[in-house]
Amino acid sequence: DSCFSNDGSTVFSVGCDKAVRMWRLGETPPNNLAQQIGVHDAPAKAVRFLPSNLVVSGGWDRKLKFWDTRSPNPAGVLEMPERVYDLDVRGNLMVVATAGRHLLTYNVGGPQPQEHSRRESPLKFQSRCVACFPDQTGFAV
After folding, report:
1. pLDDT along the chain (141 residues), means of 10
2. How far is CA 124 from CA 3, 60, 71, 132, in A?
């Protein structure tokens, strides 16, 4: 998975190598490798850029990790009920889809993410993709 920073100058990516990486566009990184800004204990599945200039990543280690790009240690960690399959952020709304058909919503507008709701998906099968509505009033699975 990958995403852009708000200004579009940086790309963040995650993958099966468990790493959270950052590419600054227009610059040549050392050895032509993206800068690693974090790591998960299992493959990382989703990454998004938050309005607070943090990067959030979710993985199969059942954790959401929040990264400040200047530090290799996570700025925060949230335990999830199951493996993270996807997440999306729009404004202060963050939605996470995990294994076990769990859907969790968070308010990420304050200093700490606040859980807003936790529910089971109404769909019969596992949710692999989730997207917030542009007006932040809900989400689609």
Report:
1. 94 96 86 88 96 93 94 92 96 95 94 91 89 95 91
2. 29, 21, 40, 20
Surface-to-core class of residue 65, CB atoms within 10 Å of its CB (0-12 exposed, 13-18 middle, 19+ buried): buried
CA 9 to chain centre: 18
The candidate with the shortest Cα–Cα distance to 115, out of 97, 100, 93, is 93
84, amino acid identity:
V
Overall pTM > 0.85 = yes
DSSP string, the chain: -EEE-TTSSEEEEE-TT-EEEEEETTS--GGG-PEEEEE-SS-EEEEEE-TTS-EEEEETTSEEEEE-TT-SS-SEEEE-SS-EEEEEEETTEEEEEEGGGEEEEEE-SSSS-EEEEEEE-SSSS-----EE-TTSS-EE-
Distance CA 57, CA 67 (A): 8
